[in-house]
């Protein structure tokens, strides 16, 4: 089985060398490594060449990451067999040394797998906001394991695709089986190309498992960056689900719409709770706090701490105090509310590199 690595990169001269370094330390080396210098205005292309990669330069690409990937895939796939594979990863990602080997092993063991995702974790960070994301990603890892190691979304940080799966997606777009998306491998119209291609593969009856291996990605160090990232994720997921509509099999509708209903319920509960607290303060002479109030807080504190215990003492302190993570969750719910509003009014928004 031939394995080709493709890395879309836009102005990543500071990280691309480390990314390629982690790729060249793999226990199963890719047979070819391609960096797509996508609308770069810095030295990304030269750094990538010096680090040992083949470089494709795209100076005019209006479709961002998806456009860069389609460009590279159109050049690479005609020379590959259906059972060969392609590692697609971000230019700011570091891989565990066995990632390629583990993903290929899962592909070989599951003939119905169209792609295998990695489990992403956050880099070491200095900001408090960044650390909250590291904790969030760590818990997401537990969710994947509890979901039978099936990927909710094939992580853009690093996933290995079977060539046959990718060609089936392109054919499915042009045959009208799945949303058109520009007719390439990746959807160029949406803002969440990784989420969309996961739905596409599942629609075509491919499996999308996760391998027990990790990719380390950046976290957002400022509220503005985090807002841009999550608004894109939330809004993009809604746009993708609308595009697929009733064509999604019932079990897929249940999985993905359940996530949306859960977020919507949480947002509604938040506003209801805040309204109740305000009404109690204004009309009932305040709120009486009893010992029973602390029972759910203690249970939540225990659960939050236990689920991040392996991350060390900083994570344990943040988790046991409860309030920081609750404020973080409220922030994300408010972002979801704005993303939902943008979806309802048809505001597409911009694709931001995150």
Calculate the mean pLDDT score and round it.
Answer: 92
Instruction: Calculate the terminal CA-CA distance, rounded to whole Å.
Output: 32 Å
CATH fold name of the largest domain: Spore Coat Polysaccharide Biosynthesis Protein SpsA, Chain A
Category by helix and strand content: alpha/beta
Low-confidence stretches: none
Q: In percent, how much strand structure appears in the residues? A: 5-15%
Count of helical regions: 12
Estimate nothing, just give the exact number of structural domains.
2
Shape: globular
CATH domain class name of the largest domain: Alpha Beta
Alpha-carbon Rg, integer: 22 Å
Output the CATH homologous superfamily of the largest domain: Spore Coat Polysaccharide Biosynthesis Protein SpsA, Chain A
Query: Oligomeric status of the shown chains?
Result: single chain
How many strand segments? Answer: 8
Q: What order do the helices and strands follow?
A: EHEHEHEEHEHEHHEHHHHH
